[in-house]
Amino acid sequence: MPITSTSWLSNYITEYKNDEMFTPQNGVKPYWNKLLTEFDKLGYDGLMARQRDIDWLLSENGVTYNVYNDPQGMHRPWNLNVVPFLLRQAEWKTVENGLKQRAQLLNLVLKDIYGEGNLIKNGIVPHEVIHGHRGFLRQCSGIEYSTEKFLSIYAADLSRGTDGRLWVVNDRAEAPSGMGYALENRSTTNRILPEIYAKMNVKRLSGFFKEFNQMLVDASPIKKDNPNIAILTPGSHNETYFEHAYLSSFLGYPLVQGNDLVVRDGFVWMKSLKGLKQIDVILRRVDDAFTDPLELREDSQLGVAGLLDVVRRKNVSIINPVGSGVIENPGLIPFMPAIARYLLNEDLILPQIASWWCGQEQERKFVLNNLSQLVIKRIDRTNRESIHFAEFMTTQQLNDLKREIELTPYRFVAQEKISFSTAPNLVDGTIESRNLVTRTFCIASNNDYSVMPGGLVRVAPDRETIRVSNQRGGTSKDFWVLEDGPVKEDITRHWQKRSSLAASGLNDLPSLTAENLYWAGRYVGRTLVNARFLRMVMRQMALVQNKNEKPDSVKLQVLFKAVTHLTGTYPGFAEKSPDGKMAMEDPMQEMLSVILDKDRPGSLAHNLAMFGNSYYSIRNLWSSDMWRVFENIQKIWQSFEEGQDRSINKILKVLNQLITRLIAFMGLIEESILVQQGLLLYFIGLQLEQSMLTITKCRSLLTIKYEEQVEYDLLEYLLTSHESLNIYRYSYRSHIQLEHLLDLVVLDLEYPRSLTFMLNRIQKDIARLPHSRKDNNLSNYQKYVFDAFSKLRLAESSNLVKTKSETDYFREDLDELLENLSELLYRTSQSISSTYFNHTDKQNQLVTQSFPF
Amino acid sequence: MIFNVKHTTKYEYNAPVIYCHNIATLRPRESKGQQLLDYKIQITPQPAEISERIDYFGNYITRFSIQTEHIELKVTTKSKIVRDYAQFQDSFFSEVCRGITLDQTLLALRSTDPDILDARQYILESIFIGRADNNIRDYAEVSFKRNRSVFDAAFELMQRIYTDFQFVSGFTSISTPVAEVMKEKKGVCQDFAQIAIACIRSVGLPARYVSGYIETVPPKGKEKLVGADASHAWFSIFIPGFGWVDFDPTNNLIPMDQHIVVGWGRDYYDVPPLKGVVYGSGKSKLKVAVDIQAAM
């Protein structure tokens, strides 16, 4: 047992020979000791509190990692351990040089693979290692690039081997992830452990990101100061979507999906609100094969048809270029020393895992004879799921694997099984040892590569696990490279934003973002209005009768039907359902379904889910306060869904909570997003939705004349659900009358909840949209709103309340007005959609073919 | 022989297409015993841009995009070709070509001679022809024996496919996996070519897919119908020391002058005559007509 000055290690079980903290003589390395001493100052409770702070901050900031098919749902919280990973500058220097060399080398390999092919011709690399790799895209051969280097971003996974050196475990080049998480980890530890961070002389990351930005700017095929740069994401379901959104807001470049971009006249354009905007550089997180459905995977909906040809014409730069996935290739490892000598006349600085490529006869024999001692990978599938740890396999599995290898030997590489180093990790209140892998990042910079002084450290979930991956749970660490002396603060931390695209406002808003904002507004509005109405109906149910009884009062029946009209959950209370059942027979059951059935379009649960979707897909725009409220809404709803209590009181309580949070959320939106970032679209969506629902409400409650008492109650209900009862009383100080109600809720020009007010506001808002006309002619959607507004201005409440005769019960004028308004607003919405969010051109293949793998 | 080939592809859409990007592999490439004298491509509506390049395999690729709304896309190519391939017929039956056995071939393929290195790519799996299953392997091994001439084996394989498989159009599509064609023993020329390729690769030899045309000869005394000719596909096997030899399993013969090569690749995926991405909401109907006239 090594002696340490701290008590942190009393439960620390590890192989001392290969733990980050210990010297070969089993002493604690001085810089780790320094960290533990700092932990001493915090004490047990203090350190635990810091970990809780970290967890809290990450969840506040909505840092997530999506796990496909995860029963816990998408958007799993990101974990960061309070204990950082430490490396001294002296050792880092060697690693840095090794990484630069490897980046340089792989850059040349990539150029050669798609260029002259000398490595194969001269027998340095067997052709199957390249030609048999799925990532070798023949469509990309011969392309010339305007960037000096082929490989602009390179990431390497490093682990410390038993010889005490850091080894390269994986090469990542296609669309390396992790940089954003590393940055987020840093900004979190920096905030939560400020005093320790300062004392430990940690190298800063900001300089690296500045260079990263410069690299993107320099990548522009036509040299200009303000190239248009966009970040291409596969969408909000991608596992690292958080990072895409994070980098987008950090770097200030629009986050786009394939659908946002289009190829015309040999250039790539972004569909923005104003029109098409030419894009010079794409930082892409879409995999190679999916980037261009014209030339690559035909069934991809994530790419841009014709993109590769634009690259070929040097009219856009893709970072990294399409095709770079071929060097994510463990088949290259055995040949790397020879490649280094051939291309650079150097020896590799960083060691690699001993690897045997099965395409060679001797190596294959060795592998087949020693299979159970090895780790087997496919040359072109390096994700964890495709790695075979032979020691854990049954005889049957081993035989199957052998047969696989014999059938297509060139596809397999076997690697030595080695135990990588462990490092301390805070687990349930004690510090325990865990295996880890470090992802490091290089970017092209002038004639060389720059290395991020740090990286993303991923830690195995338990002591037994040697596979480390976020897909399987586990946690992450911040990576501190320690200088011997104090670190100079980088004063140019906030470099000049040079992108014209980011700053220039509404016109350049990607139309998909605009559409999501518009729908976020509509769904927020819909959820709020419906929640309020449902709350009011629930209250009446509680007062008037036993909840499961068939309603005997007319007013309840009217309310129930209004629920169906408002939510659009037909047949509902309005019509007989196809199986002949009437919802009226058991109103509570129908109400529960309208509230909770998330598979039923129009239900509250469904609206919440839709709201969540539009929210996630534009999360780069939201502030952390909004995130918190949003999370809170989700939690309230989730615990309601999971709970058993379906009593009216419980429902009322949940609706109350939900309504309060929604209002808080709406307030935050208004102060967190700028109009030119798209807030305008949100407002238009919100106001349109609220207007439409007000119309529906009035139509279902007011157009039929009922007996006096019923009518009075209905008026009151409407005012209640519209949150206007107090204002009504204040304004009219009288018995509720339809005429006054119409004046207030429908015709008032000053009252923000009145229909006329809302339409007036929509009118002003849409006038600011890029295609609105300011001259003598209005655009279509402007005409519809103007028409609706005028109809309201010309209406008179004293006429609207009338029926044809005393005995007639139908208020025809009112109904006609509302029907007209409803139609006009529907057309407005259609016209706005087709003018600004035209994604209706579905992408089809001329010849339908499925991609076999 | 000099041929005039007219190839028309027409897509009719039932809803307007806003724009489209397309790739055509229609211009006949340079190949052994064949020369292109003249070539024209005509596209309606007029493409906003059109460009041509040579792909990885040496085929001509025409890329174009149409940015005007349309409900019909028509691509017509007219090629004038000298085909003088029959002259090589005797060489296939020469000792250089026939004399090499499977074992000798496999050994010769280890060389890093540029021609052989290039040919070796066609041993590997490709997009449409994955790793052979046992059915294919077994089928191949009936013909391919260690000490048997590779040429003879390939010739026999072609004959067997011709006899065992039924030509049924419409039964398969380009997405039908080779394994299924093998099971059903039905298909069209491209299926037969791909079956042969899968078999040849399963024994470790290079085989490629050839896309082209075939001139049909009308029954005696009858006029040839316009458009009766067809796009066609066959396979080619690499024999070290000799080169590539074409076989047509659909017609059970080694192509001569009636076959016209357009392009080749690892399988159909590499050389589709016309493909594209279309933006619009409708469905399409395809009509293809090929007309080959021997010119004087």
How far apart the termini of chain A lie comes to 53 Å
Poorly predicted sequence stretches spanning 5 or more consecutive residues of chain A: 1-5, 497-503
Q: Which two chains touch over the largest interface? A: A-B, 40 and 43 residues
The fraction of residues assigned to DSSP E strands of chain B is 35-45%
Mean pLDDT level of chain A: 88
Number of domains of chain B: 2
% residues in beta strands of chain A: 5-15%
Overall mean confidence score, pLDDT of chain B: 92
Give the strand tally of chain B: 13
User: What is the number of helical segments of chain A per DSSP (H or I, 4+ residues)?
Assistant: 27
Helix content of chain A: 40-55%
Secondary structure class of chain A reads alpha+beta
Helix count from the secondary structure assignment of chain B? 8
Q: What does the overall shape of chain B look like?
A: globular
Would you count the extended β strands of chain A for me? 22
CATH C-level class of the largest domain in chain B is: Alpha Beta
Helices and strands of chain B, in order, run as: EEEEEHHHHHHEHEHEEEEEE
Rounded Rg of chain B: 20 Å
Give start-end ranges of low-pLDDT stretches of chain B.
none
CATH architectural designation of the largest domain in chain B: Roll
